[in-house]
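Quarterly update, task 2.4: iron/sulfur cluster-bound model.
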Amino acid sequence: MTKKIEAPLTDSDVEALRAGESVLVSGKLYMARDAAHKKFKDNPPFDIKGQILFYASPTPSKPGAIIGSVGPTTAGRMDAFTPALLDKGLKAMIGKGERSAEVVEAMKKNKAVYLVVPGGVAALLSKYIKQATVIAYPELGPEAVQALEVVDFPTIVAIDSEGNDIFEIGKKNYSR
Amino acid sequence: MREISTKKITETVKNLCLEAGVDLPADILDALNDALKTEESPLGREIIRQIIKNAEIAKKEKMPLCQDTGLAVVFIELGQAVRLLDGQLEEAVNEGVSQGYHKGFLRKSVAADPLIRENTGDNTPAVIHTEIVPGDKIRLQLMAKGGGAENRSASRMFKPTSTKDEIEQFILETVEKAGPNACPPLIVGVGLGGNFESSALMAKKALLRPIGRRNSGFDTCKWEKSLLDKINKLGVGPMGVGGTTTALAINIERRPCHISSLPVAVNIECHAHRFKETVI
Ligand code: SF4
């Protein structure tokens, strides 16, 4: 049975997730990447408690479309900002690639998870997005902060709240 | 002399951009379908299935395969018996890129200056490589190269006395370090020999070779096969979650070099290999 989660997340929602599990995410995601993080630092323009951040920026939407193609960007570029946001109650992040040791420590301390979605499947991922609203920094164009409503958005737990890391575990399991 | 208008070049480049952004080449799709049969990790198989599904949706709905629609890299083989009319070649190519990225709702991903980083707004300038060749035709190849994979590329000047094993180690290390950030399954291009810049160019050109077509040199062909096997034993797997499909192909090119050098360049490409070509 694939697990399902929906924000706002509690400690126990997060503690139930294990690295390597598939998780379907519904409800609200906040989309923000480099330029937005640089602006809001540890003070995001929304209440971050229990919420999920999605590191991404879409291609331009075609007329009438909810959003363009949208997929994860490299999460590691946000590492410097992340521990402070975790201290403020951020519970989950969605991106691609590895995270720093500081981020993993802050995740363990604050009970948070890091989820990944494949890069390069942005047309597919856009189908799970039912609504997209710019909530801050429209001047940043594709990097504006958007609130997304998603249904059963397919993710994989990459790093769980105990610090188990699928990139290490997976490599160990399949290297010959 | 055959006369060709640069307007024809603009039109062609525009169409190549439009197609490349949404249509995953057939050789990549075939390789992904093959990988689905051999990938040992269930999570890895699930990711490959998503990549294939994504390609179907992108093609049908003309949606970009990936949100990073890349920097346009254009290879031109210009026949020496062609006379170009109506303007300048590079301007015509950039105009084609600009029109294609606008028309296709593709993301504009070019910073005007590496330090000031203001977006140019139309995904130009493209990186253009022109070669003069015999004949009266123009061959245009366009690769829209994503940043995540490009950033994981590496080059190193080896000693002429370095061994094949040392070079192999460098290639494997580069692929392993590329890891999840480069969006595996990867295509790996290697340029061996030449000088500093030509090794990098060879590595990039190696990515243009269709999957499954091996280097025509017997030794290099054998090396490509054994290296692909070693790469896929690293365990990185699709998106780095562990698995037996880390790369779909490794293509190696080699050429003569100075007696005191042995340059090696490794260019990393993600599975979202946006590549189209045509001949005018
Ligand atoms: S590396 Fe390739 S697949 Fe991954 S996000 Fe960049 S362009 Fe897309």
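Highlight for this quarter: Residues A 119-120; B 66, 68, 146-149, 182-183, 270, 272 surround iron/sulfur cluster (CB under 6 Å).
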